[in-house]
Write a structure and sequence with these properties.
Length: 311
């Protein structure tokens, strides 16, 4: 007999764990299927100083561990499995991890988004030690330092402009000879005296032992390489929402799940979504957690209304 649950949360991280906490406290006994990247992008973050309630900051993995334990304390069941297939064609919805199958009266999708990386030498080793994909998370640590931002879209312009609040100098490295960002964003960035641009150039390697000390740059037209000193490298080449499982089953826009703001309902009744898998703008732990709480409340209210209607 297939195991049927009131609420199944797919994914972890701030959205998934907060949804689980709220659903558990509503006595819905949620099941959380954590996924491969359990804990989400905060597992790649060292110090988190902008999550409310931690006056001295907290390590990203530690924050995720505390959220997980808090959800478990109220009765959430959390399994370290990776969902390989879902069927949203009828309720209860089918969820599989390999040969294991569960059914959920409601689903909360909190699978997050994955930052795009360059995949160059030094990047993995120095991630969280000067290599970052979130200026608003990590910019504060680079007061009066010199930084590199990689990219040429709106995100790169936003990140570079934001980083000038802290850094002494920000250099945008872009592989083309013009930006694809919107003109107003480009104008704002280029007008900033702290921002410089290196055109037609890519980063071939990130240098440093315990922290970033520089990069190796390569000019794409001449293939000429040179060293460039920097204290940090910020990737601003986009994110990929983790929605491959949902293609053709839910309404997506540019890969992100479309929700009925301010609620978290998706195009399929009974399926809710929260966190970075819906968010192209903020991508913060605190906004993901807030949306996770809304998803659990939305699921609880739907189940209540259906139970009431059934009499």
């Amino acid at each position: 007999m297939t195991d049927t649950r009131n609420v199944i949360v797919i994914g972890s991280g701030p959205a998934g764990y907060t949804a689980a906490l709220y659903a558990a406290r509503a006595n819905l006994k949620p099941l959380v299927l954590k996924g491969l990247d359990a804990g989400g992008q905060l597992m790649l973050t060292t110090d988190v100083e902008n999550y409310p309630g931690f006056v001295d900051g907290i390590l990203g993995p530690e924050l995720m561990e505390q959220m997980e334990k808090q959800a478990e304390r109220f009765g959430a069941e959390i399994l370290s499995v990776h969902v390989t297939r879902v069927d949203l064609s009828s309720r209860p919805f089918g969820v599989w991890a390999g040969d294991q199958e569960w059914r959920g009266e409601t689903l909360i999708i909190a699978t997050g988004a994955t930052a795009k990386w360059l995949n160059v030498p030094g990047e993995n080793k120095l991630r969280g030690r000067g290599v970052s994909a979130c200026a608003t998370c990590d910019g504060f640590f680079f007061r009066d330092r010199e930084l590199v931002v990689v990219g040429g879209g709106d995100t790169a312009m936003e990140e570079a402009t934001f980083l000038t609040k802290f850094a002494g100098k920000v250099t945008i490295v872009h592989r083309r000879d013009e930006f694809r960002a919107s003109p107003i964003m480009v104008d704002r960035a280029l007008a900033n005296p702290k921002i410089e641009v290196i055109w037609d150039t890519v980063v071939d390697e990130i240098l440093g032992d315990d922290a970033v000390t520089g990069v190796t740059l390569r000019h794409v037209r001449t293939d000429e390489q040179r060293g460039f000193r920097t204290d940090g490298v910020f990737m601003a080449i986009g994110h990929t929402p983790n929605t491959q499982l949902l293609q053709g089953q839910l309404e997506l826009q540019d890969g992100y799940i479309v929700v009925e703001e301010p609620r978290t309902a998706t195009s399929v009744v009974g399926v809710f979504a929260a966190g970075d898998v819906t968010d192209t703008i903020y991508r913060q732990a605190v906004t993901a957690a807030g949306q996770g709480s809304k998803a659990a409340i939305d699921a609880e209210r739907l189940l209540e209304a259906e139970a009431h209607a059934a009499g």
